[in-house]
Amino acid sequence: MADQSLPAAVPGEVGKGNGKGKGGKGGPPPPSAGQKGYDAPRPKVFAASKAPSPGGSSGMSELLNKVAAEGKRKDLEESKEIEDIDLTQIDPTATRERVKCVRCEKEVDKEFLESHMNAHSSEILPWLFLGGTRNVENDVEMTVRTNITHVLNVARECNIWEEIREITTDYNLKRGLGFVYKKYPFGDTPDQDLLTELPEALDFIHEAHTSDPRHHVLVHCVQGISRSASVVVAYLIRHEGMSLREAHAHLHAKRSLADPREEFLDQLGRFECQLRGLSVPTLTGEEVFAGRTMLNLDDTLMTQPVSAVPVGTGAGKSGSRPSGSREPVSWAGRFVSRKEITPVSEDTRLQKEEEMREKARKAAEAEQKRWAHWRSLSACDVGTALPWATARQVLFAEGGSGGVLLVELDGSHAVCVKPQGMMAVAELVAAHVASAMAVRVASCRVLSLYEEEFFSLAENVQRAPVMVEGHESCVQKVVTGCTGTGGGNGWTSSREFLGLVEFLPGHGLMGPEAQKVLALESCPELLREVGRMCALDAVINNLDRVPLPLWDNEGNLSNVMVLDSGRHAVGIDQQVNAILEGPGLQGYLAQVRRFASDVKLLGTSVEATKSSLRGALLANCGAEVSDEALAHFMMGLREGLEAVAEASESGVLDKSLEKAKGEAVRIFGTAASDVGLTRLDSMVDFVRRTVAEVRAGLGGGG
């Protein structure tokens, strides 16, 4: 479960910050390797494509010489800042060439530039950064260099200094932004299960990005190598449309030392297969780590802990941050031991691959059978109380805020149960705007912890059989917000609100099913409805659906549900992403006006819009759509923009927005957690201003 409270200890080794407390070695003795909550770091290793022959003394001698040279280099890096190292101290014959770091503008030897850049957080996407604790503890790096507004910590042994939290918050407030910190206590161990908490972590990143384009997110663990890298790879797969292989390559291109452990790569493979409906992942841990000769340069690192100080002892305040208290490692003096690698025969490898394919094939068939069953069911009326005592079975599905549940009730009816998190109010307002525009989106009714039906749902859904073995904890997490608390009458909950979302017996606008639909005669009318949906997205800044020229992203076509054998489209997971006052807002409003004008007058944005949609459908569905179908899409887009302009002029939109405000206060007024209620007025004002720009662009005045 996500942990946003301060843990019992914070890391003692810090990177360069504002210079306060530098040089100190204070703090209590570090925990031992066997102490609970301690993650022993993995040994430093060299990786070679071919293992040296056990009997080849000359080959081993050459390798040891390389190790000694690397050891001398490591000793220098331990004793000095990288930018102060003189390459000629390692190799007297070397030519010294100095280059300037684009991040901090310090000059370093060109030979050490990569090491220097790895000491910074790495820019994976223009707004997404990956790093280690030294980056989150560096106030200059957090503020003026990267403008971080959200931090996701995925290391259980680390936390953020209160001093850094205060400095970053103050800096962002001057920019009209805030600062949000969230922690998922993952361990860097082979038995760590990332997949249970992964969807919620990815939602945190994505909601931060989509709520304001100025938001910058830092994902970190201790070194920025394995745990945080795995989360970032998962984000690239889920929200950037990359395969696991492509995401892994992109990760290494941006941060060369990033190296998710083999067990995490295998979990990411399962994640990719579930998300894309694949039988075999595009990359496996065995493939990445195959052929490496792992050489322990320091066996003692397995038991060398990260020193820590208790929270509340003054650590983190001005002048009291401890510096790293670990003793310098003499890399050149360490004994090098080679792990024996047992070669795998070609026949054995092929047999294992065939076994994996067969296992994946059976899993895919089982999944197809499950979805066929659910698509045979009909939707419940979520507007009335539901008979939760008749719950027959439950299926956990990825998506939404930490996943959703499909619950089958008597009478072959089904309903979706979705946790209500940070974007709950934004989704509610979006639904009311859609209603004013006559755009079809999935309906939703929110249950509060204080309602009797909430308890009936929680008790009966947790008792119902789970369709996929092992998903019991996922079901419990969605319903209660926590795991390991028991079920039935013994359950406890940190969840305040649950959304009952209309069940849609269809499929997303992705994959082979969508490809078949786009080949039907009904395709033009389907895309016309998608066009109306895009008009809604433009006025609420909902960039996570169809890629439009308004945004620089690839969209997410799974948020378009296709029903009735391809005849109708329904929107899901839309939200108002209000932009606060400033240049970002002014720029977006100008884009909306220009976009509306181009749609009406067939301006430059039209071809760009068609091209974006054509590319998205080709990439996600493997389908080439006709010019006629694209023309129907543009027709629907214009109709949607005209509908919202008319709703504004007639007063229908204002009534819907006022109704949304009243419902939001009534439903979420008792919320102890952040569901977006404090941003309600800014959301409503944002919609009114974007609609005014649409009216101006269409020629109807502001």
TrEMBL record:
GO terms for cellular component: cytoplasm. SUPFAM superfamilies: (Phosphotyrosine protein) phosphatases II, Protein kinase-like (PK-like). Its EC number is 3.1.3.48. Keywords: Hydrolase, Protein phosphatase. Residues 120-277 form the Tyrosine-protein phosphatase domain. Residues 1-62, 310-329 are annotated as: Disordered. Pfam families: Act-Frag_cataly, DSPc. Belongs to the protein-tyrosine phosphatase family. Non-receptor class dual specificity subfamily. This is protein-tyrosine-phosphatase. It comes from Polarella glacialis (Dinoflagellate). The lineage of its organism: Eukaryota, Sar, Alveolata, Dinophyceae, Suessiales.
